[in-house]
């Protein structure tokens, strides 16, 4: 595996314990002469530092590995910026769940050292992209690693819309909205709404209605290369909202169309060698331990 010498570091300044972890990480990297580039929003956390400081959108130009300090939200923001840059991303978990940031704070130096020396696994995670069409023209666009959600926004009325997959009519629905989730996002909002857990290696997308006004509506899992079109009703005077990873918000009016498909650019996500997706789910979702282990513990 490739070894790394040029390290970019970013995170969310408002997150707790970021400054402490940033200082600890940079102290470690500087002892071994790594080239460090800081994202400008977290640079003030290291007063009087002499490191290179750049905006988030170009940090990939100065690094062959980007380390994200924070929770899954920080990783989601980094993913939208770094997807397609061919710069892999590694997360140090300072959040709550940590499905995407799997370097533990109590083993930072050890796990970072192993990764920097080429002892890691890497996987590609795909994103979704959306184009919002108003009067036949693209009015806005964005992307998401976890999910794209059509929802009520500030209003309490249901949304009426039609769903097409690969230009084939699927259904019309009255509901609070719909979640279009990647396998990465299947353990996020989609899971809370009753969607299935999908292994990240799957080329699939799940569609989960939010509080549908029907007893027969169920989550739907389809091929990841599908093209999704959602058309909101032109007869309802409701301004819905579209959220991408819960961080980017687009306003949608009556009669708008949403075109959603897999983004060509992917995110390269790095894990320590001992990483296990099932272990992560077991720990984060309280699935329990193996029976043999449980029996040994109780005995």
How would you sum up this structure, described in words?
The structure is a single chain. The chain has helices at 18-30, 72-82, 108-116, 189-192, 277-285, 291-298; strands at residues 6-11, 35-39, 52-54, 65-70, 89-93, 120-134, 137-144, 147-151, 159-165, 168-175, 177-181, 204-210, 220-223, 228-232, 240-244, 248-252, 257-272. Strand 15 (240-244) and strand 16 (248-252) form a beta hairpin. The mean pLDDT is 91. It contains 6 helices and 17 strands. Helices cover 18% and strands 38% of the residues. It has a 6-stranded antiparallel sheet. By secondary structure, it is an alpha+beta fold.
Give a quick precis of the structure:
This protein has 299 residues and is of the alpha+beta class. The chain has helices at 18-30, 72-82, 108-116, 189-192, 277-285, 291-298; strands spanning 6-11, 35-39, 52-54, 65-70, 89-93, 120-134, 137-144, 147-151, 159-165, 168-175, 177-181, 204-210, 220-223, 228-232, 240-244, 248-252, 257-272. Strand 9 (159-165) and strand 10 form a beta hairpin.
List the helices and strands and how they pair.
Elements: E1 6-11, H1 18-30, E2 35-39, E3 52-54, E4 65-70, H2 72-82, E5 89-93, H3 108-116, E6 120-134, E7 137-144, E8 147-151, E9 159-165, E10 168-175, E11 177-181, H4 189-192, E12 204-210, E13 220-223, E14 228-232, E15 240-244, E16 248-252, E17 257-272, H5 277-285, H6 291-298
Parallel strand pairs: 1-2, 1-4, 2-3, 4-5
Antiparallel strand pairs: 6-7, 6-17, 8-11, 8-15, 9-10, 9-14, 11-12, 12-13, 14-17, 15-16
């Amino acid at each position: 595996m490739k070894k790394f010498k040029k390290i970019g570091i970013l995170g969310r300044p408002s997150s707790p314990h970021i400054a402490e972890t940033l200082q600890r990480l940079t102290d470690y990297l500087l002892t071994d002469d790594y080239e460090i580039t800081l994202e400008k929003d977290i640079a003030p956390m290291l007063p009087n530092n002499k490191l290179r400081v750049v905006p988030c959108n170009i940090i990939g130009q100065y690094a062959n590995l980007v380390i994200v300090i924070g929770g899954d939200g920080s990783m989601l923001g980094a993913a939208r910026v770094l997807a397609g840059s061919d710069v892999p991303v590694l997360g140090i978990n300072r959040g709550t769940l940590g499905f995407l940031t799997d370097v533990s704070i109590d083993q930072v130096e050890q796990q970072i050292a192993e990764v920097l020396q080429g002892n890691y696994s890497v996987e590609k995670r795909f994103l979704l992209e959306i184009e919002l069409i108003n009067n036949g023209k693209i009015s806005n666009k964005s992307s998401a690693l976890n999910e794209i959600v059509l929802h009520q926004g500030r209003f309490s009325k249901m949304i009426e819309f039609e769903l097409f997959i690969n230009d084939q009519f699927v259904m019309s629905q009255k509901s609070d909205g719909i979640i279009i989730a990647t396998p990465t996002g299947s353990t996020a909002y989609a899971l809370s709404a009753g969607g299935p857990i999908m292994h990240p290696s799957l080329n699939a997308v799940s569609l989960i209605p939010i509080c549908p006004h029907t007893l027969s509506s169920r989550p739907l899992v389809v091929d990841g290369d599908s093209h999704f079109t959602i058309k909101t009703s032109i007869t309802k005077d409701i301004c819905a909202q579209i959220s991408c990873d819960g961080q980017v918000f687009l306003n949608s009016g009556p009669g708008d169309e949403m075109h959603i498909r897999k983004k060509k650019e992917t995110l390269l996500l790095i894990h320590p060698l001992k990483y296990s997706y099932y272990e992560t789910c077991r720990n984060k979702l309280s699935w329990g331990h193996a029976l043999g282990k449980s029996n040994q513990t109780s005995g």
